[in-house]
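Ticket #4471: structure export looks truncated?
Reporter: QA, pipeline team
Priority: medium

Steps to reproduce: submit the single chain below to the structure queue and open the exported record.
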Amino acid sequence: MIARAARFVLPGVLAAALLGCSSDKPPPAVDSNAPPTKYQDEIVDTLKKLFEKNDTGSVTGAMVSEPALEPIGSEQHYTACVRYIAHSTSNNLTASVERIAYFYGGHLNQLIEAAPGQCRNAAYKPFPELDKVCIGKGCR
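Actual output as written to the record:
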């Protein structure tokens, strides 16, 4: 008798549980222009991953600008510029690199090479946290 009752009740309980999981509530709104607070940490973490993929072992002369609201298309978003000299791990080559960071909701969304002149108005300051990054052998 109990097994028979369970056969009818169990599907109803499972259906109710599944309905509880899927709600019509929209996801919480994100302030796309929340100011980034840990932008330097996020930039360093992202560049470490990039350095591991390419031949960069260390950097010197790292500089960063404070995030500022900039027009991006028809909207405004926080951006910051990063400049450093990348040192190769395998062949003693160095390259001057300038990147622009785009933020969304207070967090780093994209970090790409800056187009010529894109960071011309950046007020750079020393970025010692990036200078300390060392990937693999051949660090300076």
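Status: closed, not a bug. The export was complete when the record was re-opened. Leaving a note from the reviewer for reference: Residues 39-131 form one domain.
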